[in-house]
């Protein structure tokens, strides 16, 4: 085990606040990705599933908190959210949703060439060029936000509904 100095959360720099112009640019890119998804016909629920799946892979507690609530507002069910980490082993996602989730995972773990090729092949079979592009851009956007929140240690606090 190596010696690691852990910087307490209260000493972390919230990079979104420290460099707001960069954060605003990232937010604009995410907004454009969301607009591309809507234009391609990817509904809000599916976009939130991508946001959640990518955030699960990256271990971003803050984004998981935000996007779980957003997915529920978009009409996602507790069942689908609960089985999302094992989406391949369920029958609750359509072929199209599976293709989008596969692309999101491949975008998040680009060093896994076999996963990337399998996901792209599955996507090509059921998604249009516009849908593929939009799905990848949504995954890129949430990956960036995950890094902002993880490095800043954005807190997740208990809400009144918990």
Automatic annotation (TrEMBL):
This is Carboxymuconolactone decarboxylase family protein. It comes from the Bacteria. Signal peptide: none annotated. InterPro entries: AhpD-like, AhpD_core, CMD-like. Residues 25-106 form the Carboxymuconolactone decarboxylase-like domain. Gene3D superfamilies: AhpD-like. GO terms for molecular function: peroxiredoxin activity. PANTHER family: CARBOXYMUCONOLACTONE DECARBOXYLASE-LIKE DOMAIN-CONTAINING PROTEIN, SI:CH211-175M2.5.
